[in-house]
Write a structure and sequence with these properties.
Elements: E1 3-8, H1 13-24, E2 28-33, E3 38-39, H2 45-54, H3 56-61, E4 66-71, H4 87-111, E5 118-123, H5 136-154, E6 160-166, H6 173-179, H7 187-196, H8 202-213, E7 223-225
Helix pairs in contact: 1-8, 2-4, 4-5
Main location: cytoplasm
Protein name: SDR family NAD(P)-dependent oxidoreductase
Keywords: Cytoplasm, NADP, Oxidoreductase
Length: about 230
């Protein structure tokens, strides 16, 4: 058995915890991020497509008897009300949060060996399932990957299971950015969560995400939360 996993945004936070726990469980892991592993800037679609065409992903997948893709990399984007959003930040967030998961999911399914089972996890967010003023870009992108997962599941591809998992409110660098975003109306709520100790550690969230991903009924419920 050769179990291989691809984890985006693996160099810190939840991605680092997922990568560490998968490796400890015997998975061979390919990390994809700007700073470590396969060096790819997921906010740059030209760079991502060039990397996919370059064969590194296909080479890694070759020989796997089981595949797991975790589209973990995420970008908050502009935490501002409509009419006050930076265009470059919005474009980057859409590329990281939506375009990259769609392209990577397609590539992993396409390059797998015949009969090799694939599990795909989109790391989603509660923000994709309810509106938060000031987060229209982030909410929209997470809603997009939710629907992508739902649609791929409806295609009933042989050996493919997929789910979008909201990992809870995790104490990561993104949370620090949220708490420093003066233009975000709900900022004080997130500051209070930090002060009360309500945030999950990346390690605990990763354990919960992987418990779902490795469960025998994974994919039967497409929209999950820890």
């Amino acid at each position: 058995m050769t179990k291989k996993a691809i984890v985006t945004g693996h160099s810190r936070g939840l991605g680092a915890a997922l990568t560490s726990q998968l490796a400890a469980a015997g998975w061979e892991v390919l990390g994809v991020s700007r700073s470590a592993g396969a060096h790819v800037d997921l906010s740059d679609t030209a760079a991502l497509t060039a990397w996919l065409d370059g064969g590194e992903l296909a080479s890694f997948i070759d020989g796997a008897t089981e595949l797991l893709l975790i589209n973990n990399a995420g970008m908050l984007g502009p935490a501002d009300l409509a009419g006050h959003q930076d265009p470059a930040s919005a474009i980057a967030a859409v590329n990281v949060n939506v375009t990259a998961p769609i392209l990577l999911t397609d590539a992993v399914i396409r390059h797998r060996g015949q009969g090799v089972p694939v599990r795909v996890v989109h790391i989603s967010s509660g923000a994709g399932r309810r509106p938060l003023a000031g987060w229209s870009v982030y909410c929209a992108t997470k809603a997009a990957v939710d629907l992508h997962a739902t649609t791929v599941a409806a295609e009933k591809l042989d050996g493919v299971r997929i789910a979008a998992i909201a990992p809870g409110v995790v104490d990561t660098d993104m949370q620090g950015l949220i708490r420093s975003s003066d233009g975000f109306p709900a900022r004080d709520d997130f500051v209070a969560m930090k002060e009360r100790g309500d945030l999950l550690t990346p390690e605990e969230s990763a354990r919960r995400v992987l418990a779902i991903a490795n469960g025998p009924d994974f994919g039967e419920k497409v929209l999950e939360r820890v």
